[in-house]
Amino acid sequence: MDNKLFSPIHFGDVTLKNRIVMSPMCMYSCKPMDGTVQPFHIAHYESRAVGQVGLVMVEATAVQPQGRISYEDLGIWDDLHVEGLKEITNRVHANGAKSAIQLAHAGRKASLAEPIFAPSGLAFSKDYHVPNEMTTKEITETIKAFKDGATRAKQAGFDILEIHGAHGYLINQFLSPLTNKRQDEYGGPRENRYRFLSEVIDAVKSVWTGPIFVRLSANEYDPNGNTMDDFIYFAKQLKRQAIDLIDCSSGGVIPAPVTTYPLYQVPLAETLKKEADIATGAVGLITTGLQAEEIIQNNRADLVFVARALLRNPYWAKQAADELNYPLEAPTQYVRGWRNS
Ligand code: FNR
What we know:
The chain has one domain: Alpha-Beta Barrel (TIM Barrel), CATH 3.20.20.70. It has twelve helices and 13 strands. Strands 3-4-6-9-10-11-12-13 form an eight-stranded parallel β-barrel, surrounded by six helices. It starts with 8 loop residues before the first strand and ends with a helix. 35% of the residues lie in helices and 16% in strands. By secondary structure, it is α/β, with parallel strands linked by helices. It binds ligand FNR. Keywords: Flavoprotein, FMN, NADP, Oxidoreductase.
């Protein structure tokens, strides 16, 4: 069988050796408040590189302290964060994978004691604080925080940046009519709701020349939310801004129930790829090599993002290769053992 899951792919000067991405996953493992990398993070990300994932993506990392989901989140709002992140990229690279980091801001979904902000003063649910509506000055400062985060990501040696525009966090709050009720140029029609993300991308690109992915929630599970037509519009804008890939997730904008099942979000990646002619990543209950191979072979997406299956098994790539009868000759240190087993 011809294999595509283990075929390389290029994003600008960055080549991934296969199509398997470790999906970003918050580990809530920082010492409260400081956002710096701990020994756990290093072992956690390095072990997935040893496990032959093509791209190891570091979890949602806050560009501002008030943008943390929790006090245990990783941060990139201070130069002090660079050293620990650099240790992660060094270890990931030493084990043959490429590294990415997801730049994030929680907006109204920050579970912090101090005041939080969002496009509009609407709480996520009764368990969350009511955010302050962002001033234009706060919007400008937050865009600059994404830019400074990108500068630090570069200093730390990451190959790829992902901007977190999904799951109802700040950028998603601007994109969605459910959460953005602004009367200024950042609210109203979708052209305006896209403006914040557009300006974040422009700011990041002024300091970062490498590949950029954007994660979107391409289904809001609410009849008054963005429609697929809106997501196709956003995808075309992202393509116009030369974004390299859209990582297609869903939900989290409002507390709506989501029915999940194997490959449930793959049609989102497939639709945006075809309609906007842009590379996409598929994520969500992709647990077997056969599923992943089907997605890539049928051109439904360019990358598969694997999250929980990689928590269960850091060597998931090897398991996938075995399913596909693909002779994965790595890591070289293990190959003799595998041959003899
Ligand atoms: C996540 N997910 C997530 N997504 C994201 O964009 N940034 C993040 O930091 C996190 N954090 C996170 C933590 C944990 C513990 C889990 C399980 C998930 C979502 C994740 O990347 C993925 O989209 C979903 O888990 C669906 O993929 P799987 O798990 O079905 O492969």
